Structure formats: structure tokens, C-alpha cells
């Protein structure tokens, strides 16, 4: 297969040179996690304004998969970094490969997981300004969510339980 590289390609895409010398722009792989507690509440974080994309909006936890890291390892790391929580019972909810996700500039391919909070062992990093447990009946309005994270929650409520 031949990959055509546009001279106006966005700087945030992964630029790659293949073994045959060809060049291409690749999509990022991320994980997102719906973190639940024993009361069947979901942990949301409010993204830091001026620091991350979609700042000031509520989100589920997530991040980029690092080199030499499995998807499950990424879920553990991202949840711990962004919330301070240890988790368990990680299970795949869905994969989102839509290149036109809302308010998303990197064409991320998201592996969306559901997991259970086990123990708070640390503090959250500075990517969020707040974290709060919500009942599924008392979520913030859809337009206060970053990206398509509200749809992930709706998907979970409809098909993932």
C-alpha cells in the first residue's frame, strides 16, 4: 500500500518513515476509562483550562499509549496519574475509530474501558482541576463534556452493564 503525505499535514499527526523509505501520517492510539465505585457512581475529571484541549469540561480519564506499554498498562497508569486511584477489573467496552470525533485534533483511535476503583493512593496530576464521583442520574449536561465522552457513558448504560 502506498501512503500519500499532504504538504499541509497537521503537526500533531504521527509522522513515520517506513522500511521502504515511504512516509506516512498515522493516527494516535489512546485509552479512555469509565471508573466506577462500589456505589455504582462514575468518576469524572474537569479538564484544566489553558493546559489541555477541551479545558473546563468534564471528561472520563484517558491518555496516549506509550511505547512498550500494553493497553491495560496504559489504563492503570493514566487512571493513577490523573486521579490517584488504583483500579481493578478492567474490561473493554468499545473501540472508537471514527476519524471525525468531535473537538478532536489528532484522529485518535480510542479503546474505551470500564474499571473499578479500588483504593486512593495518590494525588491527581495537573491535567484536571477537579475530580468528582457522579451518580449516573446526576451527570453534568452533555454540552459540559469533552469530546464524545458523554456518548461513552450512554453506550455503557445501554450496552455495557
Summarize the structure in short.
With about 160 residues, the chain is of the alpha+beta class. The protein has two helices and nine strands, in the order ββββββαβββα.
Descriptors:
161 residues; alpha+beta; Nucleoside Triphosphate Pyrophosphohydrolase; 7-stranded mixed β-sheet; two-stranded antiparallel ribbon; 16% helix; 38% strand
Annotated CATH architecture: Alpha-Beta Complex
CATH fold category name: Nucleoside Triphosphate Pyrophosphohydrolase
Could you tell me the mean pLDDT?
90
Strand content: 35-45%
In terms of per-residue confidence, which ranges show pLDDT below 50 for 5 or more consecutive residues? 1-9
Cα end-to-end separation: 40 Å
Structural class label: alpha+beta
Tally of DSSP β-strands: 9
CATH superfamily: Nucleoside Triphosphate Pyrophosphohydrolase
As a whole number of angstroms, the C-alpha radius of gyration is 17 Å
Apparent shape? globular
Give me the strand/helix succession: EEEEEEHEEEH
Counting DSSP H or I runs of 4 or more residues, the number of helices is 2
What is the CATH class name? Alpha Beta
Biggest pleated-sheet summary:
7 strands, mixed
User: Approximately how much helix is present in the residues?
Assistant: 10-25%
Amino acid at each position: 500500500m502506498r501512503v500519500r503525505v499532504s504538504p499541509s499535514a497537521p503537526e500533531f499527526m504521527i509522522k513515520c518513515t517506513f522500511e521502504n523509505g515511504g512516509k506516512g501520517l498515522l493516527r494516535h492510539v489512546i485509552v479512555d476509562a469509565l471508573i466506577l465505585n462500589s456505589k455504582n457512581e462514575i468518576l469524572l475529571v474537569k479538564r484544566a483550562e489553558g493546559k489541555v484541549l477541551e479545558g473546563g469540561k468534564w471528561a472520563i480519564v484517558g491518555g496516549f499509549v506509550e511505547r512498550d506499554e500494553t493497553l491495560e498498562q496504559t489504563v492503570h497508569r493514566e487512571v493513577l496519574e490523573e486521579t490517584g486511584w488504583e483500579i481493578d477489573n478492567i474490561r473493554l467496552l468499545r473501540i472508537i475509530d471514527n476519524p471525525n470525533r468531535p473537538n478532536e485534533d489528532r484522529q485518535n483511535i480510542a479503546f474505551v474501558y470500564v474499571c473499578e476503583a479500588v483504593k486512593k493512593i495518590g494525588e491527581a496530576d495537573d491535567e484536571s482541576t477537579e475530580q468528582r464521583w457522579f451518580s449516573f442520574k446526576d451527570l453534568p449536561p452533555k454540552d459540559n463534556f469533552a469530546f464524545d465522552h458523554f456518548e461513552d457513558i450512554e453506550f455503557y448504560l445501554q450496552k455495557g452493564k
